[in-house]
Amino acid sequence: MIEFLxxxxxxxxxxxxxxxxxxxxxxxxxxxxxxxxxxEEEVTIYTYQYVKEDVLRLYGFPTRKERGLFEQLLQVxxxxxxxxxxxxxxxxPAQVVQAVEEENETFLVKFPGVxxxxxxxxxxxxxxxxxxxxxxxxxxxxxxxxxxxxxxxEALEEALEALKALGYGEKEIEKVKPALRHEQLxxxxxxxxxxxxxxx
Length: 200
Prior knowledge:
The protein is an alpha+beta fold and 200 residues long. It has 3 domains: 4-61, CATH 2.40.50.140; 64-138, Orthogonal Bundle (DNA polymerase, domain 1), CATH 1.10.150.20; 153-199. The two termini are 30 Å apart. It is globular, with a radius of gyration of 17 Å. Helix 1 crosses helix 2, helix 7 runs antiparallel to helix 8 and helix 8 crosses helix 9 (187-199). The chain has helices at residues 64-74, 81-89, 93-101, 105-108, 116-126, 140-152, 154-165, 170-181, 187-199, and strands spanning 4-12, 16-21, 24-30, 43-52, 55-61. A 5-stranded mixed barrel has the order 1-2-3-5-4. The model is unreliable at 136-152 (pLDDT under 50). Strand 2 (16-21) and strand 3 (24-30) form a beta hairpin. Residues 71-90, 106-125 form the Helix-hairpin-helix DNA-binding motif class domain.
């Protein structure tokens, strides 16, 4: 299995990115391709190769721990790669782990394609098995800090409201939000950048 790839992002779409490594371009499916900074000369993407019948795809993650959670979700009956990515796309793997440990079905059914039956199956299959996948130092603290940062950025919040007014859905906005959060821009500049990413 390919542990990780390090290279330059040359193209980003809603569900995939193309990473150039040497003279080869790898198409990588991601929960949120926009979390990777295209401005960096090199990025490291931890990968999972999925092989089933006539399907061969490479999935990518910013950390080993997110990849680990993806792998665990694939072990759940009724959850495939698309469903596992939908859970990770929210950008809060630490909350997913907490929901599993606390048997919080209400939180889990918020994800696309996860009903009550699947949520219960996730809890039954994974409770007690995720401590090595996500620990407090690398998950809860990080996402708590990110939430505070988002709340304090008024220009970003105004831009997100403007995107909603333009007709973009929550799912589309959530995919670009993590990348926007790393920028320091005016509301108008945030909107322009978000539109560039969404339409590229």
